[in-house]
Amino acid sequence: FNYAGKAIKSKYNRILLASAYHPWSEDSDCNIRFNDLFGILINSAPKNDGIILGADINAKVGRRDDDSLSNVFGKFGLDDRNEKGCDIIHTYQSNQLSIMNTFFNSDNYVTYK
What's the average model confidence in pLDDT over 54-62? Predict the structure, then answer.
């Protein structure tokens, strides 16, 4: 429904709205456990439902250098990518998710110092 209480047409019957905080840890076991739980959450949504996920991914995904990943992330972002960023890209790709802030140009992609 919109702000006036009128139904909005959508290709989805329902939407899963979730928030995720990817661990900052460099411990690969911690990241693997998180990715496993993340996959369970995403796969719990029926396939015909939409997914909106607010996530703090705590990884450097870099810039897209391969058009085969154009559905996962955009052409904007930091120049470098770390191992955790590669894992995130794989996880998002396998779950048909997109890292939306990489589709928009920004002066600053870092939210921590």
Answer: 84
Tokens standing for residue 65: 């250098």
- For residue 50 the two structure tokens come to 């939409």
DSSP character at residue 40: H
DSSP state at residue 112? -
pTM over cut 0.85: no
Distance between CA atoms of residues 37 and 100, nearest Å: 21
Please name the residues in contact with 62: beta carbons below 8 A apart, sequence gap of 6 or more: 77, 78, 79, 80, 81, 85
Q: What is the DSSP letter of 73?
A: B
| Bridge partners for 20 per DSSP | 55
Supply the Cα-derived Rg of the chain in whole angstroms.
16
Q: Which residues pair with 34 in a beta bridge?
A: none
